Amino acid sequence: MAPIEPFKIKVFTFVILCAVFLSYTFWLYSEVPAKSKPANTLAEKGKMIWQQKNCSACHQLYGLGGHLGPDLTNVYSRRPEIYIRAILQAGTPVMPDFHLSSKEKDALVAFFKYTNTTGTADPKSFTQHLDGTISQP
Ligand code: HEC
């Protein structure tokens, strides 16, 4: 039997790698359910205020953002609502008072209530799987 041409081996390897890549990609995207929780309109307003006032200059959501203040993804379960409102009302020696109206405070609280339902912020609590995906407890 004649030896297989090196070019054919290369083409064969290329085709196999493409097939493996495509089937893995298909498996990954069809297996992992995309969990989407629609935000209600008040929480969406809160998100806009969060962006306009640039709260993420000092705070993180899901571990991303500035590090002068704490991560606020789960602040709603960590702190009583009245405490959150008090901070939003008056600021602290480090955090400026943004002179928010009571509607703006309601919206921000709704936003924190929403982010709290979307998962936990601490990546250390994530479980890493062999296929490279992560899940939360
Ligand atoms: C200049 C930096 C800075 C900015 C900008 C800022 N914060 Fe803060 N924030 C802090 C710091 C620092 C703390 C922690 C309390 C302290 O040490 O004064 C804090 C605390 C908080 C807390 C209480 C968190 C807890 O676990 O105690 C909330 C809620 C909060 N900020 C919301 C906001 C919102 C909403 C905005 C945007 C409108 C904002 N912050 C903008 C610095 C900032």
Structure description:
The protein has 137 residues and is mostly helical. It folds into two domains: 1-31; 41-125, Cytochrome c-like domain (Cytochrome Bc1 Complex, Chain D, domain 2). It has helices spanning 6-31, 41-52, 75-78, 81-90, 102-117, and strands at 60-61, 64-65, 127-128, 134-135. The strands form two sheets. The protein has a two-stranded antiparallel ribbon with strand order 1-2. The radius of gyration is 24 Å and the shape is elongated. Heme C is lined by residues 53, 55, 57-59, 68-70, 72, 75, 78-79, 84, 87-88, 92-96, 98, 108.
| CATH architectural group of the largest domain | Orthogonal Bundle
* Binned strand content: 5-15%
Q: Which class of secondary structure composition applies to the elements?
A: mainly alpha
CATH homology group of the largest domain: Cytochrome c-like domain
CATH-defined topology of the largest domain:
Cytochrome Bc1 Complex, Chain D, domain 2
Number of strands: 4
Poorly predicted residue ranges: none
The CATH class of the largest domain = Mainly Alpha
Radius of gyration (Å)? 24 Å
Binned, the helix content reads 40-55%
**Main beta-sheet annotation:** 2 strands, antiparallel
| Overall number of domains | 2
Mean pLDDT comes to 90
SSE run: HHEEHHHEE
Separation of the first and last Cα atoms = 57 Å
Bound molecules: heme C
